[in-house]
């Protein structure tokens, strides 16, 4: 177990940056689990190794073997490595291999279009990177978003909203290069709907005031003079005239 712990510690340390923990250390981690499992099983057996295993695991307050095993388990779970591996943890899943393949193609495209110069090129020379690597980067970004959606739907662990640290770190590196270093951008796929909705909202006040004006416009009233009853004096004059 001590040799397995040293091997796994060295593997984790060598793959800390760039992060390659899950894809590079799943073998040593699986072997360490098997070694610790054999010790733990011996504690529950009535064999001759029972007393030896019990003394290793529970005879003192510090319990180094148990502490080391818990540390490696917590590190592995925090890295969400199970989301990148097959069910038996013998290798990377097909989706992870597909993502890493696109990731390597993106980096190769970046390097090829930098024309062999350093990363501190002037911004004017990054147009070739943005133009020639746009398709590869778009596929990588779409696949990452797809994997995130699948992971949110199927995961029930405390870290279910995250992919494994290898995939997250690879995507972070690529996005920083694409947006910050090369100052590239992806065309928004929702441009047409956004423009349509924005135009509709902008025209709403015009439509409102126009309809309000048409409905509130009053027609000119035509005054009709009423027929007035003739005064009594006129009636008297008429009677005298005919009498």
UniProtKB/TrEMBL annotation:
Keyword annotations from UniProtKB, A to Z: Membrane, Transmembrane, Transmembrane helix
Residue stretches spanning the membrane: 192-214
Pfam families named among the record's database cross-references: OSTMP1
GO cellular component: cytosol
Taxonomy, superkingdom: Eukaryota
InterPro entries with a match to the protein in the record: Osteopetrosis-assoc_TM_1
Name used for this protein in its record: OSTM1 protein
Annotated organism of origin: Calcarius ornatus
């Amino acid at each position: 177990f001590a040799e397995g712990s040293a091997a796994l510690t060295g593997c984790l340390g060598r793959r800390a940056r760039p992060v390659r923990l899950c894809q590079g250390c799943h073998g040593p981690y699986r072997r360490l689990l098997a070694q610790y499992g054999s010790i733990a099983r011996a504690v529950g057996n009535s064999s001759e190794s029972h007393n030896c295993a019990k003394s290793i695991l529970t005879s003192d307050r510090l319990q180094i073997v148990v502490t080391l095993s818990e540390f490696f388990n917590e590190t592995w779970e925090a890295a969400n490595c199970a989301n990148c591996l097959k069910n038996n943890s013998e290798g990377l899943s097909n989706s992870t291999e597909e993502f890493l393949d696109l990731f390597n193609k993106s980096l190769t495209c970046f390097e090829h279009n930098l024309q062999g110069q350093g990363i501190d090129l002037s911004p004017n020379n990054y147009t070739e990177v943005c133009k020639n690597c746009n398709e590869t980067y778009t596929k990588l970004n779409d696949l990452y978003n797809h994997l995130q959606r699948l992971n949110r739907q199927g995961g029930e662990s405390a870290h279910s909203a995250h992919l494994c640290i290898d995939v997250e770190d690879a995507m972070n590196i690529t996005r920083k290069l694409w947006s910050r270093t090369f100052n590239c951008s992806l065309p928004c796929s929702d441009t047409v709907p956004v423009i349509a909705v924005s135009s509709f909202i902008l025209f709403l006040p015009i439509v409102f005031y126009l309809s309000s004006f048409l409905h509130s416009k009053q027609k000119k009233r035509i005054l009709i003079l009423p027929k007035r009853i003739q005064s009594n004096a006129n009636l008297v004059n008429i009677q005298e005239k005919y009498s």
